[in-house]
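Here is an idea for our session: we take a single protein and study its fold together. Once you have written the record down, we can walk along the chain together.
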Amino acid sequence: MNAELRFLTGEQLRLATAVLDVIIPPDGERPGAGGAGGAERLDAILAERPDVRRPVLDALRAIDIAAGPCGFLAHDPAARPDVLRTVEAAQPEAFTALVTQTYNAHYTCPKVRRALGFTPENPQPEGYTQARPFDPALLEGVRTRNRTWRRV
C-alpha cells in the first residue's frame, strides 16, 4: 500500500484513515471513509492539488497533537470525535479543508456511489434514453428581448 503513495507518508496515511473514519463513520454494511480507501484517494488529491496540501496537513497534524502525547491512533476511539471538535474550533479553515477533501475522496469512490444507489459509470447508452423532446417555446423569452450584445 505505501509503495503506491504519492504524497502522504505511511504514518500520515494511517492517521488519515482513522480520522476519515470519524468524519464519515461506518454505517451498517457501508465502510467509513477511511475503511473505503478514502485516505489513499486523499493522498492522490494532495499529490494533484498543491492548493489544499497545507491546510489538510495542518489539520491532520493538529488532530494528532490534540489527541495527546500518544497521538490520535492510540486515542480511545469513543473519544476521537471530541478531538476533532477541538481542532475544528481551534483551526476552522484547516479543518474545513480536511472535511471537504474527505467528502471528495469518499463520495467519488465508485464502490461508495454504488452502495448509495448511484451508478458511477457514464449513464449513456444505458441511462437517460427517454429524453424529453426539445420545446422551442423555452427560448421565447430570449427571442423577444432586446439585443444585449454588440456586433464585432
Summary: Residues 50-66 form the longest helix (17 residues). The chain has one domain: 10-126.
